[in-house]
């Protein structure tokens, strides 16, 4: 089975960016009116934070997870798997990192295909078979090939900025907002920030759920083992019930990067990932399709 451009994913990416662009403009205008901030101030604020997000989001993700780059001598089999699958996916070999955590997960990050990183948790390496690990790595490489990391980094910027305003809005009370708009100015700014955060949050999650389906299919094409990925997802999901809640809380903010996110009532309502059962069903359907095609 050959790699096919997922036009559904690209259309959703474009639509999400356009919608977020409109929200972005609304956010900037609302802040300018409520806080009395000039265009140069907003440009410096939005532009500066955008640059930081684009340049350092991957490093922050690796740092926050405690991921460490590992050499070929330390993890020869993992390096061999990543290198072989990257070649099959027509990608430069990503940097390989390992997270010392019993949470059985993996993620990819990076600013581009040339600077990508695939990070695997020790809990995943210890609990899956070689074929299953290979399928999970292929899933992460599919994210890289689809440019999911760059798109999600840009898309998440607005919600991150809005959340900063919500958390630290009181700081503006001592500045221009209080002098020009009074106490009401900062209240309006915080209210707008909450609204922007909710809208961007929902848009990002809708896109994120679809990209997981696309990465699952891409993993099947790269590795040729959709059943291995299906069983890996089932095994990972089953192990999540035995992970201490403390460990899950420490990694909860990074769920969008993981192959399977944290479980719980709220995560099911606002999940970055579709239900594991649906993903497994689609993968098994794909396996039957590949059998019919003689792949």
Helix content: 55-70%
Give the helix tally.
11
Order of the strands making up the biggest sheet: 1-2-4-3
Number of domains: 1
> What structural class results from the helix and strand content?
mainly alpha
SSE string, helix = H, strand = E?
HHEHEEEHHHHHHHH
What form results from the Cα inertia axes? elongated
Low-confidence stretches: 172-182
User: Major sheet: size, sense and barrel closure?
Assistant: 4 strands, mixed
Folded structure, characterized:
With 295 residues, the chain is mainly α. It contains 11 helices and 4 strands; from the N terminus they run ααβαβββαααααααα. Strand 3 (106-109) and strand 4 form a beta hairpin. Helix 1 packs antiparallel against helix 7 (176-223), helix 3 crosses helix 5 (130-145) and helix 7 runs parallel beside helix 11 (276-292). The model is unreliable at 172-182 (pLDDT under 50).
